[in-house]
Amino acid sequence: MTTSTRNTEQLSATTLLRFATAGSVDDGKSTLVGRLLHDSKSVLADQLEAVEHASRNRGRQAPDLALLTDGLRAEREQGITIDVAYRYFATPRRRFILADTPGHVQYTRNMVTGASTAELAVVLVDARNGVVEQTRRHAAVAALLRVPHVVLAVNKMDLVQYAEPVFAAIAEEFTAYAASLGVPEITAIPISALAGDNVVEPSAHMDWYGGPTVLEHLETVPAGHDLTACHARFPVQYVIRPQTAEHPDYRGYAGRIAAGAFRVGEAVTVLPSGRTSTVSAIDALGESVDIAWEPQSVTLRLADDIDISRGDLIAPSADAPAVTQDVEATVCHVADRPLAVGQRVLLKHTTRTVKAIVKDIPSRLALDDLAQHPAPGSLVANDIGRVVIRTAEPLALDAYADSRRTGSFLLIDPADGTTLTAGMAGASFAAASGAGAEGTADDAEWDF
After folding, report:
1. Distance (Å, whole) CA 141 – CA 430
2. Fewest beta carbons less than 10 Å away: which of 74, 102, 312, 412?
């Protein structure tokens, strides 16, 4: 093996892919994940022994691989997935973090949680049932969350005699629907999670299929981002000011780069204040570097002394986001209590949390047919809709389509800290001249 080849393989092995599984109830999501872990030799001996023991107690001859992810007692009793199950595994070619999300309609919010950071979504379909309403719902959620890669896994092909026409019809219907939603890349793979066909090893029963297995696709799909095309963003998490004899004048701004890359000598703007400076140094792991990129945790030092605190955002001056107090967004309501017009909330965006009020809920999205239901008045658990929010302080908020990290936010109940809603910012607009200068008496205590 040449040095170049060895270096290439080592670089590939260090890449990380986050992906989520979704699908209707009993489509076999947990079994697929269990098969993936088992056949890729990513299951510890004691874990497999525990699954085999539990399977025998339930009267099964073979291990029920779904038990590798369905860890809650209620999940094992009902044979369904309720919460998002996260698993880490690695192959010689890549590292993975997977999120096995529930299939029930009432747990749609859990899919939003699992897929919010995913670079790929695996949507399962039972070959016997084809594309159903929940399949369309999960495709729509993946599109709303801007998941760049979607895999259609047509499962239980063994129960339809591995028939190519069945797979082709389902793949054609799903691909047309997902493409209409704007999903950029769709890959269809026929599998049997129970038997292991086309999960890790190619199937001997489907010689008509010449594409990759699920694992092969996961190992080779592009991961990460083109840093040159990303909007560089650095939310400040902590200000480091030791004021010691060794470092009397040290002032650094610590945090995790949310997107893009920063370079020494680059002109930057601090938001929301709008003050400008230049990156004088970048400290990473105790050493000075010339460049740092997502998702590294670093300390930036600037050439000028500027009043900067936690919650501020540092961005390149040539590519700084607009600052606004009016936010229009698509949200998924995740709390059991409704979200209503006029409700006071806290809006958490990166490291910044501000007071806000829900000014309007223009519509609710019906995911089965993508119709907009106007003026619903409120959103209940698992609803996806449009909201208009007014914040007490300006935010440097990107459009979610441009940046998933800095275009997303949470709405939080100020009374008890409960997460109410996950938001994806749409087109933010500047407040009209003079707007917001005088608030109503009801708004006064929120310092608008």
Report:
1. 28
2. 74
- In angstroms, the CA 90 to CA 364 distance is 40
Q: What are 170-194's pLDDT values in tens digits? A: 999 999 988 888 888 899 999 998 8
- Count CA atoms within 13 Å of residue 228 on its CB side: 0
Q: Strand order in 85-90's β-sheet? A: 85-90, 95-100, 16-23, 120-126, 149-155, 186-190
Tokens 């560089």 found at? 232
Closest CA to 142 of 332, 328, 327: 332
pLDDT at residue 227, as a whole number: 60
**385 to 64, 355, 428: CA distances (angstroms):** 38, 21, 16
Contact 277, 304 (CB under 8 A): yes
> Structure tokens of 59?
């009267």
Average pLDDT rounded to a whole number, residues 61-69: 60
> Do residues 19 and 100 lie in contact, with contact meaning Cβ atoms separated by under 8 Å?
no
**pLDDT computed for residue 242 by the predictor:** 83
Task: Report d(CA 363, CA 236) in Å as an integer.
Answer: 34
